[in-house]
């Protein structure tokens, strides 16, 4: 008899597309090929390999039933209950492990992994409750069906005495063993063990099912950054005084110092690194240079080509980083960008012969040398239970992970993230590089709040050893608090700012950035600045930037602002926090509404960014629109005011100490209850629950707090947007297939969507009757809802002309 694992429908008829024996062998080979030999779970490697071989061999055992074969080939009768296959293989694997005298933990693990390989992970202690009377009836019916096929199955799977292990588990025995594991013998390493093996299984299963190849990573030239930018000069490291170095020489000095650590005696035993450096010092290329050289050293010692994973918080800087990496490694590496707007068909090194599903699978499972991804993808895979995300969890093993702009992470999550990264490096042997200009206390908080109870301490190596001295050299900017200058009522403060501060501090010869905490304030201020310039006959161009503008216009606008600055037109940019990280703009001066100190310093990084000596101590004035508490919380507001104190001016050389003091104070007064509870759930294997947020289940963890107060809106801004909306509707109605939409229109469609408060969206309709989650502004009604200068109209009043 012929058994299939998958089928295809041609001309209305289903036919087998892959033999079950071939698929099982394929999954086994792919899973073992991805198994990293240097993971460290306190289990002998051979035992770990044995578990993986068992789950791979047995994961689709239930597909041998006629119930599944009928379902696959659309032959009657089709029984939706009896065609289920995952549990059947799980029971057999569990008994197989027990017969082979494996410890209870590993036997339970095989059952759990196979049981759930088509779903999300559930609480481990929920497993025995699934082994009930109904499940036993299904098993016995399937067993009766499969009995006559046992000799064939044994031959195909190379298994002896299959009949003896086809038994239904003893529920009481299983419950006792699970309880002993979860309650009495719990260990955080089990979370990483389960997610790692689960990832190996489901990735191999999906790769083989879609006939997607495993990418064989390349040995990359360790000197590619040197080739692009020149060799870092080690002779600079002997300097006792670096005050005379110019900007390029400082970049060179910093890169030389970082890569010099590769000569440290025990550098390959080090797992956690930090690079603390001022904005504009070239951290992106410094980290890439170190990672490439470290990868080469690992390859020479271990004969393994490890993957480089680079994660960032925002889409615009992900796209910038992709561009820089591809300039540095143009033909040397397969680089994938994996984030919300990733172009599946535009990725490097994808043959035309590879179909849509294979390209999507390559992207989702990071089949590449280097992946550049978002914090959402990275951290919700690291702390998560979703099948779709966990496919790539195993890629963390042995990898070099670069985390940039880590100051953007929420303070309340830092202890949890620090602990998770520490254990990732411990159990999966990953090397982690944290980069920042403001040095948030991620690992310090992890130690104080979580790791102390586990008797663990983080050993992080600062690669830019001289960072204090380097920070002390910079005199590009200074923070100048003007916190008591505005006394008007909240709604009148924009006008007061223009009249009493802006007119006093700004001159028409200077480019200027103004950053607000709220979209509403930024729009109001943009209009008032425009009115002021027009009234006084100034010709400075005014630009606006926030998430209130559709994504397709943001990058275009940043480029126009950059050109305006370079053309010495002294533009003025009014923006929200969207400009705080990774936006390469260089203004003469700026204003920022009071906020977190690290955010203030990030805005300072957009001023005199290129260290022009004629602009030494360029000012960033801190003002108070009385909105910090609303956005960041009362404590952040109070501690920011305390850190800024009564000082008239804080020079750049003091920024690092300013940030350290601020983080010390705010950390001491913060509640990290949620972080500790999420870690407890990881340790107790509490993956999901009926009330995940209340129970701090792993499934409730989100790197960005989702708000049910916001709604997605598609803005039909022009004919191009009209066309892409029509294609979206055709996809919903089945007039074009998903592959065509994803290939040709998805990116463009998403680039026309913004998120707005539901309170101002009540008069908008949905994009069509099939899709209620996306609202719609039609082109014919654009003037009533969307301003080309400032985006979605929130007050429904005419706005002043903004010069663009």
Short description:
By secondary structure, the chain is of the alpha/beta class. It folds into four domains: 206 residues, Hypothetical protein af1432; 197 residues, Rossmann fold; 192 residues, Rossmann fold; 83 residues, no CATH class. It has 34 helices and 22 strands.
Count of individual helical segments:
34
- In total, the number of strands is 22
Distance between the termini: 72 Å
Mean pLDDT, to the nearest integer, reads 90
CATH architecture of the largest domain: Orthogonal Bundle
CATH fold naming of the largest domain: Hypothetical protein af1432
Low-confidence stretches: 343-352, 798-804
Estimate what percentage of residues fall within beta strands.
Answer: 5-15%
| Main beta sheet strand tally, sense and closure | 7 strands, parallel
- SS-derived structural category: alpha/beta
List the helices and strands and how they pair.
Elements: E1 4-10, E2 13-19, H1 20-34, H2 45-58, H3 66-72, H4 86-99, H5 104-115, H6 127-130, H7 133-146, H8 150-157, H9 162-165, H10 171-184, H11 188-209, H12 224-229, H13 247-260, E3 272-276, H14 283-302, E4 308-312, H15 315-328, E5 335-338, H16 356-364, E6 370-374, H17 375-382, H18 387-390, E7 400-403, H19 414-427, E8 431-436, H20 442-449, E9 460-462, H21 467-473, E10 477-481, H22 493-505, E11 512-515, H23 519-535, E12 542-545, H24 551-566, E13 572-575, E14 589-593, H25 597-604, E15 618-623, H26 628-632, H27 634-644, E16 650-651, H28 655-668, H29 673-684, H30 692-695, E17 710-715, H31 719-733, H32 738-744, H33 746-750, E18 753-757, E19 765-768, E20 771-777, H34 782-785, E21 786-787, E22 791-792
Parallel strand pairs: 3-8, 3-9, 4-6, 4-7, 5-6, 7-8, 10-15, 11-13, 11-14, 12-13, 14-15, 17-20
Antiparallel strand pairs: 1-2, 10-16, 17-18, 19-20, 21-22
Helix pairs in contact: 1-2, 1-11, 2-4, 2-5, 4-5, 13-14, 19-20, 19-29, 27-28
């Amino acid at each position: 008899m012929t058994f299939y694992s998958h089928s295809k429908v041609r001309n209305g008829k289903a036919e087998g597309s892959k033999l079950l024996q071939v698929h099982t062998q394929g999954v086994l080979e792919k899973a073992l090929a991805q198994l990293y030999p240097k993971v460290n779970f306190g289990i002998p490697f051979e035992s770990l390999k044995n578990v993986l071989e068992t789950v791979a061999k047995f994961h689709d055992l239930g597909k041998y039933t006629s119930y599944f074969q009928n379902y696959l080939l659309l032959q009657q009768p089709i029984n939706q209950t009896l065609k289920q296959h995952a549990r059947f293989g799980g029971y057999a694997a569990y008994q197989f492990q027990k017969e082979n005298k494996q410890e209870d933990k590993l036997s339970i693990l095989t059952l759990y992994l196979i049981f759930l390989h088509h779903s999300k992970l559930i609480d481990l202690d929920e497993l025995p409750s699934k082994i009930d009377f109904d499940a036993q009836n299904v098993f016995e019916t399937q067993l009766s069906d499969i009995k006559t096929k046992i000799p064939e199955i044994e031959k195909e799977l190379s298994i002896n005495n299959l009949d003896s292990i086809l038994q239904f588990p003893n529920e009481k025995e299983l419950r006792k063993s699970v309880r002993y594991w979860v309650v009495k013998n719990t260990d955080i390493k089990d979370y990483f063990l389960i997610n790692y093996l689960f990832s190996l299984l489901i990735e191999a299963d999906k790769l083989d099912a879609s006939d997607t190849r495993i990418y064989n990573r390349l040995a990359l030239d360790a000197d590619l950054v040197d080739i692009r930018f020149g060799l870092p000069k080690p002779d600079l490291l002997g300097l006792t005084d670096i005050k005379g170095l110019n900007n390029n020489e400082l970049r060179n000095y910093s890169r030389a110092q970082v890569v010099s650590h590769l000569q440290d005696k025990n550098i390959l035993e080090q797992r956690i690194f930090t690079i603390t450096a001022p904005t504009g010092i070239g951290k992106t290329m410094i980290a890439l240079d170190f990672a490439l050289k470290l990868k080469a050293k690992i390859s020479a010692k271990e004969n393994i080509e490890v993957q480089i994973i680079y994660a960032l918080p925002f889409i615009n800087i992900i796209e910038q980083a992709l561009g820089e990496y591809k300039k540095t490694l143009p033909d040397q590496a397969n680089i994938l960008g994996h984030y919300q707007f990733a172009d599946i068909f535009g990725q490097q090194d994808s043959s035309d012969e590879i179909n849509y599903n294979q390209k999507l699978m390559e992207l989702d499972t990071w089949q590449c040398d280097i992946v550049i991804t978002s914090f959402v993808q990275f951290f919700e895979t690291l702390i998560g239970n979703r099948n779709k995300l966990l496919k790539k969890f195993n890629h963390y093993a042995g990898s070099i992970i670069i985390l940039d702009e880590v100051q953007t992470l929420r303070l309340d999550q830092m202890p949890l993230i620090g602990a998770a990264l520490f254990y990732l490096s411990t159990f999966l042997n990953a090397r982690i590089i944290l980069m920042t200009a403001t040095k948030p206390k991620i690992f310090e908080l992890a130690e104080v709040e979580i790791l102390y109870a586990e008797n663990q301490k983080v050993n992080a190596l600062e690669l830019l050893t001289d960072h204090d001295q380097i920070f002390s050299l910079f005199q590009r900017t200074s923070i100048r608090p003007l916190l008591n200058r505005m006394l008007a009522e909240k709604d009148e403060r924009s006008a007061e700012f223009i009249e009493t501060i802006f007119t006093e501090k700004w001159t028409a010869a200077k480019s200027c950035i103004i950053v607000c905490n709220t979209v509403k304030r930024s729009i109001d201020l943009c209009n008032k600045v425009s009115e002021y310039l027009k009234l006084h006959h100034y010709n400075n161009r005014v630009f606006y930037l926030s998430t209130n503008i559709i994504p397709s216009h943001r990058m275009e606008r940043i480029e126009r602002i950059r050109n305006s600055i370079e053309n010495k037109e002294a533009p003025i940019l009014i923006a929200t926090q969207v400009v705080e990280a990774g936006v390469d703009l260089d203004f003469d001066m700026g204003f920022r509404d009071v906020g977190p100190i690290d955010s203030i310093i990030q805005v300072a990084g957009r001023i005199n960014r290129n260290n022009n000596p004629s602009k030494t101590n360029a000012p960033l004035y801190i003002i108070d629109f009385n909105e910090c508490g609303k956005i960041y919380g009362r404590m952040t507001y109070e501690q920011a005011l305390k850190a800024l104190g009564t000082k008239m001016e804080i020079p750049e050389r003091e920024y690092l100490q300013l940030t350290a003091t601020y983080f010390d104070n705010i950390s001491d007064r913060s509640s990290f209850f949620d972080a500790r509870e999420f870690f407890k759930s990881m340790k107790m294997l509490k993956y999901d629950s009926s009330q995940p947020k209340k129970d701090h289940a792993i499934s409730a963890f989100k790197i960005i707090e989702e708000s049910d107060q916001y709604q997605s809106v598609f803005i039909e801004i022009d004919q191009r947007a009209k066309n892409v909306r029509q294609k979206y509707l055709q996809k919903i109605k089945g007039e074009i297939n998903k592959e065509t939409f994803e290939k040709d229109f998805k990116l463009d469609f998403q680039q026309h969507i913004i998120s707005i408060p539901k309170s101002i969206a009540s008069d908008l309709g949905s994009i069509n009757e099939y899709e209620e989650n996306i609202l719609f502004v039609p082109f014919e009604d654009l003037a009533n809802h969307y301003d080309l200068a400032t985006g979605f109209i929130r007050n429904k009043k005419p706005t002043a002309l903004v010069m663009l």
